[in-house]
């Protein structure tokens, strides 16, 4: 390997929005995440509301009521 081209790899603190904290290895000192294995429904087995909305839900909420030049449907 070439010298002096690789980033420093050291201890890294990970903080989740649910309050869970753990330590791992990484190239940055601190990482903040929205969902971790302690609160994700897949790992916990509980069906719950994920704190962050998905891309599609954000898009639909942002552009709700916009017709994009289409004719309105009449019944």
From TrEMBL:
Reported cofactor(s): Zn(2+)
GO cellular component, one term: ribosome
Domain of life: Bacteria
Coiled-coil annotated residue ranges, if any: none
Residues annotated for Zn(2+) binding in this entry: 16, 18, 36, 39
Keywords (A to Z) from UniProt: Metal-binding, Ribonucleoprotein, Ribosomal protein, RNA-binding, rRNA-binding, Zinc
One Gene Ontology term from the biological process aspect of the record: translation
InterPro entries per record: Ribosomal_bL28/bL31-like_sf, Ribosomal_bL31, Ribosomal_bL31_A, Ribosomal_bL31_sf
GO molecular function: metal ion binding; rRNA binding; structural constituent of ribosome
Cofactor note: Binds 1 zinc ion per subunit.
A Pfam entry, by short name: Ribosomal_L31
NCBIfam families per record: L31, PRK00019.1
Functional description taken from the UniProt entry: Binds the 23S rRNA.
Quaternary data: Part of the 50S ribosomal subunit.
Family per similarity comment: Belongs to the bacterial ribosomal protein bL31 family. Type A subfamily.
Name of the molecule in the record: Large ribosomal subunit protein bL31
Source organism (scientific name): Dethiosulfovibrio salsuginis
Lineage of producing organism: Bacteria, Thermotogati, Synergistota, Synergistia, Synergistales
């Amino acid at each position: 390997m070439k010298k002096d081209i690789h980033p420093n790899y050291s201890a890294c603190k990970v903080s989740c929005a649910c309050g869970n904290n753990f330590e791992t290895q990484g190239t940055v000192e601190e990482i903040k995440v929205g969902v971790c294995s302690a609160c994700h429904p897949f790992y916990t087995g509980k069906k719950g509301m994920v704190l962050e909305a998905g891309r599609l839900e954000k898009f639909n909420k942002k552009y709700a009521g916009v017709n994009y030049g289409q004719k309105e449907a009449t019944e």
